[in-house]
Write a structure and sequence with these properties.
By secondary structure, the protein is of the alpha/beta class. The chain contains 5 helices and 5 strands, in the order E-H-E-H-E-H-E-H-E-H.
């Protein structure tokens, strides 16, 4: 299995450092960005397997980038619109959670340092299990689409 890539977008250096150190220790490739502009550049360059995205950033909101990633803005169609997105924020209000999910976030985590990394790590494990499951099903479907060499029956119909 290839090493999974995570893009962490947050303007707080201690959060970036904390997540980067812990994710690297678990053998993830980690790229960081402290602004929306940096995140856009990294999205194009590294095509991450997961994005961990803060809401409050200096040049725009994480909500805006989440919407762009999901393809709501045609200018950003070059981004992988299916990448899982975890909104990571100090904002715990229901209105913010709803806004995150409406913009296309897959999950929403309130920053609480003692519980933050175990939750993000657990979510990453689930995302990568889902990815591997999809890949395995694709392989099965591909094999089933070839004619049976013994019977000559074409199973692709």
């Amino acid at each position: 299995m290839t090493q999974q890539t995570v893009l962490v977008v947050d303007d707080e250096p201690h959060i970036l450092s904390f997540l980067e150190d812990n994710l690297r220790a678990d053998d993830f490739t980690v790229h960081t960005a402290s602004s929306i502009a940096q995140a856009r550049s990294r999205l194009n360059a590294v095509r991450p397997s997961l994005v961990v995205l803060d809401i409050s950033l200096p040049d725009a909101t994480g909500f805006e980038l989440c919407r762009e990633i999901r393809g709501h803005d045609p200018v950003t169609a070059r981004f992988d619109v299916d990448v899982p997105i975890i909104m990571l924020t100090a904002r715990g209000e229901d209105v913010d959670r709803v806004r995150g999910f409406e913009r296309g976030a897959d999950d929403y985590v309130v920053k609480q340092m003692p519980s933050l990394f175990p939750y993000v790590s657990s979510r990453l494990d689930q995302v990568f299990l889902d990815i591997n499951d999809v890949l395995a099903h694709g392989d099965i479907l591909r094999r089933l689409s070839y004619p049976n060499s013994l019977s000559g029956i074409d199973r692709s119909r």
